[in-house]
Amino acid sequence: MARRTSLSPDQTRSITLLGVPFAYALLLLAVPLGAIILFSFWTQDFMTVDTTFTTANYREIWDSPIYGLLLQRSLMVSGIVTAVTVVLAYPVAYFISFHVKPSRKSLWLFLITIPFWTSYLIRVFLWKVILGYNGVINSGLLELGVITEPLTFILYNVNAVIITLAHAFAPFAILPIFVVLEKIDRSLLEASQDLGESKFSTFLRITLPLSMPGVVGAVLIVFIPTIGDYVTPELMGGAGGKLIANMIQTQFLQLNNAPLGAALAVVAMLCVTAISLIFVFLNRKYLRGRS
Amino acid sequence: MSLRVYVIAYLIFLYAPIALLPVFAFNDGTIIAFPLSGFTTQWFTELTQNAALHAAVRNSLVIAACTAVFATILGLCAARAGAMSDFRGKKGITGFIMLPLVLPEIIVAVSLLVVLRQVLGLSLGNWTIIMAHVLICTPFSIAILNGAFAALDPAMEEAALDLGESRWSAFRLVTLPLVMPGIVSSMLIAFTISLDEFIIAFFLTGANPTMPVYIWGLLRFPSSLPVIMALGTILVALSILLLTIAEIFRRRGVRRAGGTDTGGFL
C-alpha cells in the first residue's frame, strides 16, 4: 500500500461532495445486492424464511431443465438483439457524425432520442398492433397482394421479442458509437485517402478500428439491460417466448419463493457479467491506449 | 445517398409505433387493428371520467417530482466533485454511482424488494419507488450536469473568491446560475424517466399504483385499449414538450458557460 499523502482542501471538498451520492448508492445498491446474494442461500416456505445456509436453490436451478432453458434463451435473445441493434445503429451514428452539419447534430440526436422517452409500455404494446394478426404489416401485405393469409411467425414468439427490444434499445446503441466517431481525427482519413486507399478501405482500416470502443460500449449498454426486461417477453413472447426475467418476477411476486428468485437473479447476473467480460477481453486491442 | 435513404428508413422504424398512437386514439372502434372505422373523441372523454386513472396519474406525478429533485441534488454533488481535484479511487466511486445505468432494472427491483420487505419488514409505498427511482435517475442527472460543469470556466468562481466572497456564496452567486439550465434539464429528464418507469415500480408499488402500473393492468382488458391509446397520445405529446424544454435549457446552459455543443442527453 502506498502511503496516503495529505489531501489538499480541494480534494477534501471533492471527497465530501462525492460522498453523498456514493453513500446513497452504497445504501440502496451495494447493500441490497449483498442482501440478495445472501438471500439466495436461504429458503422460504410460504411466508417463513429459513435462514440456514443452503445451496438448495442453486441445485434446483441446475437440476430443473426449465431454468437452464430460460437462461439460455434469454442470453440468446439478448445476444441477437444486441447484434441487430448495434449493426443497424452503426450506419446511423456514422451518418450523423460524418454527413450532418455540426450545427444540426444535436437536433438529429434529439430526434433519435425522442421515441425512447415515450411510454415504454405503450410502445411495446404498439408493436403488437404492428406485428399482430390484423396488424399493420399483415393488413398492408394482404392489401398489396404479397401474401394471401396473415403471417403468424412475427407475433407471440421470440422473433417478436427481438424486434421489439431492438427498437427499444436503438438510441442506447447509437449514442456511444456517435460519441467515439466524433472524436476521430478527420485528418487521419484524409491522410489515408491521400496515400491511395479507397473510401471503403479507409473505413475498414481507420474508422472502424478507431470506433471500436464505442461499439464495445454500445454492445454492453444493450446486452446487459435486455436480460432484465420482462415486459416485452410477457406482452410479445407468447408461451414460447418467455425469458429468465419473467421467471424471476414470477418467483418473487406470484410463487412467493423469493430465495429461488434471488438465486435466479444472481445466476443471470453472473452469466451476463461473464459474457461481458469475455467480450471486453476479446476487444482489448481496440480498447488499449485509451483513457 | 444510399446511407441517407437507410437513415430515413431507420427513423421510420423508430417512429412507427408512436405514429400509430394518435391514429387509434381517434379511431371509432374498440379493436386496435386495421381497417379504421371513423373519427371519435370518445376515448379522450372517457379518460376524463376515470377516477382510478386520475389517482394513478397524481401518484406518478408526486413520485416523479420528488425523484427529479433528489436525483438532481445527488447529481449536482457528483458533477461538482467531478469538476474538482482528483483523488485516489475517484474514478471507481464515480463508476459505482453510474452503475444503475447498465444494471438490469429487475436486479435493482428485486434486491430492493428483498431488503425492504424481507429484511426490514417495511410496507411498500410511494417512498419506496421514489428511493429506487432516485437511484436509477442519478446517473442521468450526473451525465447532464457533468456537461454543464465541464463547459464552465473555473476562473469565474476563483475570481469571486479573490474578490472576497465566501466559498458558498461564490458557488451560489456565480456557479449555480451558470449551471442552472443544466439543473432544469436534469430535473426534466429525471421527471420523464420516473414518470415512465414500470419494471421497478411494479415490484415496489404499494396499495396505490403508479400510472405505468395502472396501464399494465389495463393492457389485459381489450375493451380498455382505445382509452390507453388516448392516454398514450397525451403522454407522448407531453414528453415531447418536456424534452424539448429540457433540450433548450441544456443548450442554453452550454452556450452560457461558453462551451460548444457536442451532444445530446447521454
UniProtKB/TrEMBL annotation, chain A:
Domain annotation ABC transmembrane type-1: ranges: 71-279
GO biological process: transmembrane transport
Coarse class of the protein's main subcellular location: membrane
Keyword Magnesium in record: no
Keyword 4Fe-4S in annotation: no
GO cellular component, one term: plasma membrane
Location(s), subcellular: Cell membrane
Organism superkingdom: Bacteria
TM region(s), chain numbering: 21-42, 75-96, 108-133, 153-181, 202-227, 260-282
Membrane topology: Multi-pass membrane protein
UniProt-listed InterPro entries: MetI-like (IPR000515), MetI-like_sf (IPR035906)
Pfam family, one: BPD_transp_1
Signal sequence residues: none
Keywords of the record: Cell membrane, Membrane, Transmembrane, Transmembrane helix, Transport
Family: Belongs to the binding-protein-dependent transport system permease family. CysTW subfamily.
Protein name: Spermidine/putrescine transport system permease protein
Protein's organism: Loktanella fryxellensis
Lineage, uppermost ranks: Bacteria, Pseudomonadati, Pseudomonadota, Alphaproteobacteria, Rhodobacterales
From TrEMBL, chain B:
Residue span, ABC transmembrane type-1 domain: 57-246
Keywords, in A-Z order: Cell membrane, Membrane, Transmembrane, Transmembrane helix, Transport
InterPro entries attached to this UniProt entry: Bact_Polyamine_Transport, MetI-like, MetI-like_sf
GO cellular component: plasma membrane
Transport in keyword set: yes
Bilayer disposition of the protein: Multi-pass membrane protein
Origin: domain of life: Bacteria
GO biological process: transmembrane transport
Main subcellular localisation: membrane
Membrane-crossing segments per the record: 6-26, 61-81, 93-116, 128-150, 170-191, 198-219, 225-246
Subcellular location: Cell membrane
Entry's family note: Belongs to the binding-protein-dependent transport system permease family. CysTW subfamily.
Protein name: Spermidine/putrescine transport system permease protein
Species this chain originates from: Loktanella fryxellensis
